[in-house]
Every structure is written in structure tokens, then in C-alpha cells.
Amino acid sequence: MRIRYRTLTAWLGVYFFLTLLPMGLALIFDRPPARALGIEIGALLGMLGLGVLAMQLVISGRHPWFARGVGQDNLLQFHRQMGLFAWLLVLAHPITLLIAEPDFLEFLHPGDELLRAISLSALLVATTLLIVTSLWRINMKLQYEWWRALHGLLALFVVSTGLGHALMVSHYTAGWPVKIALAVAVGAALLLLIDSRVLRPWRLKGRPWTVAKAEQIDGDATRLVLDADNHKGTPFAPGQYAWITLGDTPFSLQQHPFSIHSDAHNPARLEFTAKHAGDFTRSLSDVKTGTRAWVEGPYGVFTLDPSSDQDAVLVAGGVGIAPIISMLRSCAAEKSRKKLLLLYANSDRASVLFWDELETLSEQLNLRVVHVLEDPPEDWTGEEGLIDGELMDKYQDSSSYNPDYFVCGPPPLMNSVESALRDRRVPLHRINSERFNLV
Ligand SMILES: Cc1cc2nc3c(=O)[nH]c(=O)nc-3n(C[C@H](O)[C@H](O)[C@H](O)COP(=O)(O)OP(=O)(O)OC[C@H]3O[C@@H](n4cnc5c(N)ncnc54)[C@H](O)[C@@H]3O)c2cc1C
Fold it and tell me: pTM of the full predicted structure?
């Protein structure tokens, strides 16, 4: 996605302020007499760990106000890195304390205080489980939906037990003002987790959708069309995505993100194309017309403004064409004359989505479409192989050309195109990318 440095700096400022808040509260108010250095470091590592863990709940909650400017995909990458950091802090906290003062082992001794010993041991195990199941979910054959539910429950347990532990140790948190401030700060993060997992689906109940069409299409994919049921729909910008749930209730473990590829001028009818990747996407073509559906969103900052004059180079691979089709449809609806170049990569001719529509759009718009096939048929006269810097240079004739770039496709394509753009010193604010592999 496109990152603006000023927004990023402001965002990081807010993030670090909130992360350091538990530690700051402990140090600023009613500071008790200092103990040995190792003990102080160990205790503060714990407070920092609590701050990082509480912020993990905020980062991962799909809160648009928090993701604005930095993008949901970047946030999730950040969430992953900070998760590892939090785990190290949670481990370093008791290890440092025990090295500095072996008597702290009493905290884990069941004979001393059973509840405390159990909850602290469970805290260490739960934090480790959070990390292990996230890093090795696929190797552990853990289905995404079950992993997500487990992840939410473990996170709730870890942060609330961590808060309880910090309050009960009552060293830095001996005074009531610190206790209350800490409980409010960490409690707010816990409430945001409950909001995203419970209250948000509840709010969706007032805005149902109906499946108008679900049909298998060429390219091993299903086209899904949803109509708003007695409401005005979901306004979205071309290129955004939404989380879809099918069935009578929005409280389902099965919730999947798909790019909305309909024209943004009609928010009451949303179209999606889902490539058959696993159980959910393969079952989509069997969904009956009239089935209840729920749409959470829109999300994402991978968006193009059809009314601006800014030229654009669009690079797509496979189903990565979906958000780009929405951009092109919206440009056609606004009769945009901006110069557009689409480089669209697929493994073979049968995998190409929207072939006919792309031809029509190239007649309506100032758009050149270049199909690139890895395994082309014998009579193919177009481009072969993969999209790389050389191929992009070939179709961008003038050196004064200064377009925005939009890249969406499988990870190898994204990595190759992003690195080619960096090598060509394309300013970062001109590069927009969307990754479909959030987890
Ligand atoms: C922002 C975004 C936009 C997307 N847009 C499209 C699109 O327009 N068309 C399209 O075909 N695909 C899109 N995807 C990918 C799509 O969400 C997954 O392919 C789909 O959820 C796979 O589900 P499954 O059960 O069929 O397959 P599975 O075999 O269960 O999953 C295949 C892989 O998809 C990922 N995945 C599975 N379930 C989810 C989930 N609930 N949320 C996030 N990732 C999941 C996992 O990494 C998993 O390993 C998008 C993904 C993202 C993040």
C-alpha cells in the first residue's frame, strides 16, 4: 500500500505512546524505592510486555480509525513482528527476575499460592502457544477459522491475566491511581477486542445482504453477487475489500476477505470473484440464490481515484485482477481519460479472468492491456514468462512518464515488481500494493 511518511510518523508516535503507557504509569506515579538493577529491569520488561501485548489487540482489530494511512496489510505484518517481540519480553521478564533474585521462584511454586502459580505458568504457556500456532499454523494443519478463534481466546487470556498479575504484584502498582489508570488503559484494549469479535458482528445484523448470484466461471473461480437487503449498501472506493460471511448469522468462524470488483457507483450491489483456494472458496459455487450474507467493510487503502488525471500502471497476477477491475470499471463509469497500462500475468490462457471485459474496457478507456502468460498456447503472440522490470520498461515508453503503480498478485510477482520499482527509484508514495496473504 502507499505510505505517507507524515502519517506513518504520527501513527508510530501514537503506537509507542500507548505501548509505553503501562511502564510510564509505573515509573511516573508513586515510584517505590529502587531495588537491585536486575530486578528493576526484569519488572519493567514485564510492564513493557503488557503494553506491547495490549496494543496487539488494537492492531489486529480491523479498526479503520487505527489503520487509516498505514493500511491493514502493513498493520498485520507489524502485528506479527510485535507478537514475537512481546513473547521475548514475556520470557525475559521472569528469566531476568530469577537471575537477579532466585527467591522469585516462589511466584511459580504451587505450594506457596496455588492460583498465582497456575495463572503465571498458564500465562507463559499461552503466550508461547499464541506464537507457535501463528508461525506454524499450516504445518500444524490448523484450519484458519479455528486458529483465528483460538488466537482471540488466547489473546484475551494473556492480556487479562497479565493485567491481573501486574495489579496483584502491587509493587509499582501499589497506589490506587496507578491501579485504576493501568486497568483503564489495558481494559480499553480488551474492550476493543470484544468490540471486534462480538459487537461488530452484532451491528452487522442490522445490515443483511442476499446472494443474488453465485456461479462458477472460467479460471477456476466463482463469481459472487450480493444485493443489499433493505438498506443503502456499503459505499466503497474502487480497490477496497470486504469480509464476507454466508449463512443466517454474522457470528460465524467462516469470514473471508475478498476485493469488491463492482463499479463503486452502485454500493447496494457488490460483486466478488473468488479463486478456488480451499474449502470455503470451492464451496461458493454451490451457494443458493437468496442465501443470507453479511458484509464487513469496506477496508483497505489500495484505491485509485477515477476522477483524478494521474496516470497509472496496474500490475496484476491471477485473481489479483479483482481490485483492479473495480478501478477500471469506475474509471469507465466516470469517462476518465487518464492513461492506463495494465500488465496482467497468468499461468495459462484458461486462468485469465475478465478477458472479454478487459477488451471492452480497453476500447472505452485510454487503456492498454498486456497479457503475460507463463505457459502460453502455441499460437500465442503476446508476452511470455513473468512480469519483471524489463517487461515494465518495454511498455513505459517515456522517461517523463510519472504514473502511480498498483500491484496485486501472488507473493513472487509482488516481490519482483516491488523490487524492480525500487531499483528504478520510483518514489515510495507512488507504489500501492495489496497482498492477499494476510496470515
Ligand atoms: C485483502 C484481501 C483481499 C482478497 N481478495 C480476494 C479476491 O478478490 N479473490 C480471491 O480469490 N481471494 C482473495 N483473497 C484471498 C482469500 O481471502 C482466500 O483465498 C480465502 O479466504 C481462502 O479461503 P479457503 O477456505 O477457500 O481456503 P483455505 O485453504 O482455507 O485457505 C487458503 C489460504 O488463504 C488464507 N485464508 C484462509 N481463510 C482466510 C480468511 N478467513 N482470511 C484471510 N485469509 C484466509 C490462508 O492463508 C490460507 O492458508 C483476499 C485476501 C485478502 C487478505
Answer: 0.86
